[in-house]
Specification:
The structure is a homotetramer of 134-residue chains.
Chain A (H helix, E strand, L loop, with lengths): L2 H8 L8 H25 L9 H22 L6 H24 L5 H24 L1
Helix pairs in contact in A: 2-3, 2-5, 3-4, 4-5
Chain lengths: 134, 134, 134, 134
């Protein structure tokens, strides 16, 4: 059981958002942020470095937006829709862009394949949470 | 001259966003993040601690969202509108909420007055940048 | 298998640090950062709020130092000992302080018990990595 | 007057660390983090990209360690020496490495010259604070 799940189970929550959607998003954001950090670094080692610049840029932005969204969600408060909705939308947009770019390199670079998968899982988890808090 | 301005002046930018709006947002986000960190800590020292809980929560969220927005803007790339627009909207919403809460405590606590001012300046700078990149 | 493990397995590493120690530290840092964010927020809901101030402060610092250490380690480069050693030492110190404070509240607050456990696990994983890179 | 200075002046501090050394470090850390983010991005635009990889890696690590140190110091609490000392040592080490690498590129790339200056100023400010809290 993840720590996010354990922490959530200790709270007397009176929260409109399902615990499952929240924990899934927290876990996926954490994985995506780490995968993007590792992929940035792996891209910088590649021979075809000039081809990897867009991937590096998108991974850097994706890490920063996932980290902020992760921090907000980890506090597990009743979401302020005016803040959380656009933040999730921004996160979904960068995970989509970054995931698509990683997929372009997936056959050449296994690290991009794994990172692309983390981005897509994060995109889906944020979409499901966005639906849940609307 | 701030480092944001100096760094920007070294780039051959072919960027649709005005340098002034970008530098103003970077400086205001950096100030707001720091003011909110300091205010969180100052709130935790107050006698009327139970009254300060909402202020602490909003300052924590405001720091995280300002930090992510600051990181994205500091890279000074041509903005991806699908990502940057909702991120700025989220930042504007939290600066508005956090600024309003700080203003409620401004007469009692000078640190809240200063923090509220930093939030309002950040809110304005992000609104102007949002208009500029639309 | 965690994404940290998957990403690491895609790299042709010529790195003196064992993959097991690195992955264990990455996973423990990520869990500890999230547990501290959640615990900060849970502390702010408690009736005995004045008793929780030290716990809140330590959790805030612990999150920030774990996040930086996590970012550095997630890049999975050959460690620069001059940078990584004191960073791990700082992380071990804050995990120890924060873990001890959480344990003080563990009987009263289940969220502190879970967070204290995450801090102790992170402290151990960072100590093992520090030994491995010395 | 910077917000760090304004916030500090609102606190009844009974703190052994001089306000000047603290504010100087906060301002220098904030500038250095932003300069490194901007320099990472500017490096990625250069023709001699393969030459810039070490600079990019050091700037990424420097941003993360400066951000954590900035967050801890912005809370303006009495420092816990066991945590703050090694954190400052780590920050001094990465600012030194990153500053030296930026200086190597300073004649070719003005953005590296400006970033190297921000790193050196941050290194000095952290050294002075480290002396002050010993």
């Amino acid at each position: 059981m993840s720590y996010a799940r354990q922490m959530l189970s200790t709270l007397q929550r009176n929260n409109s958002v399902s615990a499952d959607a929240l924990v899934a998003a927290i876990d996926a954001l954490s994985d995506c942020s780490q995968a993007c950090s590792a992929d940035t670094s792996a891209d910088l080692r590649e021979q075809d470095l000039a081809e990897m610049v867009t991937c590096i840029r998108l991974c850097l932005d994706c890490t920063d937006i996932c980290d902020a969204t992760l921090a907000i969600l980890s506090r597990m408060t009743e979401p302020d829709r005016e803040v959380t909705r656009p933040l999730l939308e921004s996160c979904i947009a960068i995970c989509d862009s970054c995931g698509a770019e990683c997929e372009r390199h997936a056959k050449m670079h296994e690290h991009c394949r794994v990172c692309g998968e983390a981005c897509r899982r994060c995109e889906r988890a944020c979409k499901e949470l966005l639906t849940a808090i609307k």
